[in-house]
Design a protein that fits this description.
Blueprint lengths: L27 H4 L29 E8 L5 E10 L6 E14 L12 E16 L3 E14 L2 E16 L2 E16 L2 E3 L4 E10 L4 E10 L5 E10 L3 E10 L10 E10 L2 E9 L5 E9 L1 H7 L2 H5 L10 H7 L1
Antiparallel strand pairs: 1-2, 1-15, 2-3, 3-4, 4-5, 5-6, 6-7, 7-8, 7-9, 9-10, 10-11, 11-12, 12-13, 13-14, 14-15
Length: 323
């Protein structure tokens, strides 16, 4: 009895923690690979899982996404990222909005009362910096607000991440939604913190990428995620992956495969992901990622680097420098 660990229980730790929608915010490019991306030197689409991925960005990017979730709710997102002038620092601005729809009101005797609307919003500021050709570090601060009818909660959370790249191999470590907390009616609730590590293989010559992640959330079972992507001439991407929760039952709806498709049109990447849960649930996600820098590369050097009266003297080196 003396050696037994004490049990600690409190209202603030019972059931699901606040802002659970933060754990659903991965983009279609990631979810199509089963949610595995912590070790990939991703573009803007991977920064939602590992903020250190912003450190590899060399051009300004804008992304918008929409997800229709299995519980008939929706999750929308927007993100902007780029490189600050005069330095190696990269920045990111992101927002997520979840619409829980109408919530049917019932009293203690199960009699209908007034229906209410549930909504959640998260906004984050992200910074990342590369240190040499192999290492990037990143961090983010988030404001989160949740509203159910006339009642609302407000809080803060923080992310941090690191990525290492050595040739084809990539390694990542990321913590999400740590610290801070949310105040609901005078009670402080913790955020859905999570710690994850991943390893990835990126073979540029063949367009094949493989990823393996292990995640340890504070509010749910640990999970293992595996994913693959094959790109054809940087214009078509086919993705597949699997997520498995360790120790979960056969009816766990988060277990199951994910499939994805990406298409490039000019400077825009269009991504779609479809996930199937073992409980028969499914989700659909779509996104658009705009990369203006890629459009400049497709133009003749004279159209990019010089005014009209000097266009004939432009060189490929001029266009590369401008980009």
């Amino acid at each position: 009895v003396a050696l037994a660990a004490p049990a600690r229980a409190g209202l603030e730790s019972a059931g699901t923690r606040a802002a659970s929608f933060l754990a659903q915010g991965a983009t279609p490019a990631v979810m199509g690979m089963g949610g595995a991306a912590l070790g990939l030197s991703h573009d803007l689409t991977g920064a939602g899982l590992n903020v250190a991925a912003l450190g590899w960005i060399g051009e300004q990017q804008l992304a918008v996404s929409h997800a229709q979730l299995a519980d008939q709710t929706s999750l929308d997102g927007a993100a902007l990222a780029g490189r600050l002038r005069g330095g190696a620092l990269r920045y990111g601005l992101a927002a997520q909005y979840r619409n829980d729809g109408d919530i049917v009101g019932r009293d203690a005797n199960n009699r209908p009362t007034e229906d209410v609307v549930g909504q959640s919003l998260a906004m984050s500021v992200q910074l990342a910096r590369p240190f040499g050709p192999h290492l990037t570090l990143g961090g983010a601060a988030k404001y989160i607000g949740e509203h159910v009818g006339q009642v609302h909660g407000n809080g803060l959370a923080f992310d941090a991440g690191v990525q290492l790249q050595f040739g084809m191999l990539g390694f990542g470590l990321a913590g999400q939604n740590f610290g801070g907390g949310m105040i609901w009616d005078g009670v402080r609730w913790r955020m859905p913190a999570s710690l994850g590590a991943g390893i990835a293989l990126d073979h540029a010559a063949s367009g094949l990428r493989l990823a393996l992640d292990v995640n340890v959330p504070s509010t749910y079972a640990r999970d293992v995620r595996v994913g693959s992507e094959w790109r054809l001439r940087d214009r078509l991407a086919l993705r597949g992956g699997w997520r498995h929760l360790l120790g979960a039952g056969s009816d766990e709806r988060l277990n199951g495969p994910g499939f994805g498709l990406g298409l490039k049109a000019g400077s825009i990447w269009m991504d779609y992901a479809f996930q199937v849960g073992e409980a028969g649930t499914s989700t659909h996600r779509v996104s658009l990622n705009l990369r203006p820098g890629r459009a400049l590369q497709a133009l003749p050097p004279s159209a990019v680097a010089r005014p009209a009266h000097r266009a004939e003297s432009a060189t490929p080196q001029d266009a590369h420098h401008l980009d």
